[in-house]
Amino acid sequence: MAIDADTLASDTAALVAIPSVTGSELAVLERLAELAAGLGLDAQLHEYDLAALRAHPDHPGEEAARHDLFGVTVMLPGSKEGPRLALDGHIDVVAPGGEGWRLGPWSGAVEDGYVHGRGALDMKGAVVAALHAMAAARDRNRGEVVLHAVASEEDGGLGTFAALERDARFDACLIPEPTGFDVVCAQAGALTFSGEVRGRGAHAAMRLEGESAIDAYVGVHAALAEHERSVNADVQHPLMRDLELPYPLSVGRIEGGEWSSSVPDRVSFEGRLGVRLGETLEEAADALRAALAGHPVELRFTGARFASGQTPPDHPFAALVRAAASAEAGHDVAVAGVSYGADMRLFCERGIPCVMCGTPGMELAHAVDERVAVSDLARLSRTIARVIEGFGA
User: Is the pLDDT of residue 1 over 80?
Assistant: First the structure.
């Protein structure tokens, strides 16, 4: 089916050129709505009640500073009797970091068959691919198709949560995260945690008079590593069992000490805990608390709260997406699980079958010189169009 790769590349580049680090997404959403209108699609910009969402008992957590929350809904009408298909993709991105980018993080340059810049892969290009798929499948869809272009995925999923609070009447959902064209039917969860270890300060020359918080943290770190081994010792789900490390536990920030000649009296740290399929967030948190029992640490769970999520690989919708992706690939694509949290679980929690399928290149997500192949975006767009056409058949 006809997908104009050049226009797909230029539309992706237009979004990449607009910085949209989590917490500041309005400008790129407004540009996205313009692109949708240019394709003849009905796009609506929504502002959500941030205070009400934060007060909601199922609020999924946040980590970035935020004063407002916007999203765009793009509609492809269908018959009133037909099913409703959701497409979902985020346009917020992580910061470019301190490394030097060859073409700049916001260049949106199209070079050697790639669109370059932060968000090209994760996942502005995929959102544009979904837009073009909707336009290509116009008049061949049996039911209504709704694309949610959302903010705040990177820090917990508040954008998709808000969109589903507004409208969750869907029969299935496809999220085109970068999966290497595998059809992802299982995603791990993740909890952000922080901790503080206290010691007793002293002059370094009188080290024995103090209690080093750094020394105490070493034991905490070893306990965290042992807990990761325990969580991954007997993985039951077959798709997760295939992964090298299904449920990672990582400490991403440590801070301690104030002076080289002082015994440090405090260490603070932050990390991410993998949550197993079938395990509640509370059960995962309690297990980590138990693993650190007996260590001098105050543990808190702050920020993002990604539950796990899964759709049976033999579900008809998973089979439809796999058939569409396989037809474009020329061979059977794999069914897979992933070790990261995603918005997929927000649909699964509401009983909406949801899978992920998108371009290769996950190793470039959040990395310097992020980029996506234009040919892969075109293939993804054709795959999504096939799903739209086959949905409800």
Answer: no
239 near 338, Cβ under 8 Å? Answer: no
Q: What's the total number of domains in the chain?
A: 2
Q: Let me know whether 160 and 293 are in one domain.
A: no
pLDDT of residue 46: 96
Residue of 340, 264, 271, 337 lying closest to 307 (CA atoms):
340
Q: Which residues, at least 6 apart from 119, have a Cβ–Cβ distance to it below 8 Å?
A: 15, 16, 20, 91, 93, 125, 370
CATH number for position 105? 3.40.630.10
Averaged pLDDT for residues 238-262: 96
Whether the Cβ atoms of residue 116 and residue 107 lie closer than 8 Å to each other: yes
Neighbours of 20 (CB within 10 A): 24
Confidence (pLDDT) at 79: 77
- pTM for the predicted model, two decimal places: 0.94
The whole-angstrom separation of Cα 114 and Cα 379 is 14
| Local confidence band at 2 (pLDDT 50, 70, 90 cut-offs) | confident
| Helices 5-16, 125-136: crossing angle, 10 deg rounding | 140
Tell me how far apart the alpha carbons of residues 82 and 276 are, in angstroms, rounded to a whole number: 35
Q: What is the pLDDT of residues 7-22, one digit of tens each?
A: 999 999 999 999 999 9
Can you tell me whether residue 232 is helix, strand or coil?
coil
Residue 64 in tokens: 């970035």
In this structure, are 52 and 166 located in the same domain?
Answer: yes
Taking a C-beta distance cutoff of 8 angstroms, is the pair 116, 109 a contact?
Answer: yes
pLDDT at 98: 86
Cα separation, 176 vs 269, in Å, equals: 33
d(CA 221, CA 204): 23
Which residues, in sequence order, are CB contacts of 259 under 8 Å at separation 6+? none
